[in-house]
């Protein structure tokens, strides 16, 4: 099993657990769960396994915590996906159309976008 993670904790185990328990975003919950498990004395390898994440995925979360505690962990967003394919005006028009109840499925919305 991997070596235990060494850190000067800025938060108690209870504070980390409360942050984990209160987080609504699933990605953030996983990060905070990992930190809570680390705070409990688990190794990085064990935490990665328990959270279903790759070891290398957990490493940046640890780095973020070391840099600024829970605040730093919660403000980070990984990824971001591909750039939007619609302009701001097209997005606004799509939202307005959706607000009227014109779309029953996402396919209806996609077809509407193609027709524009």
From TrEMBL:
It comes from the Bacteria. This is Transposase and inactivated derivatives. It comes from Candidatus Moduliflexus flocculans. The lineage of its organism: Bacteria, Candidatus Moduliflexota, Candidatus Moduliflexia, Candidatus Moduliflexales, Candidatus Moduliflexaceae.
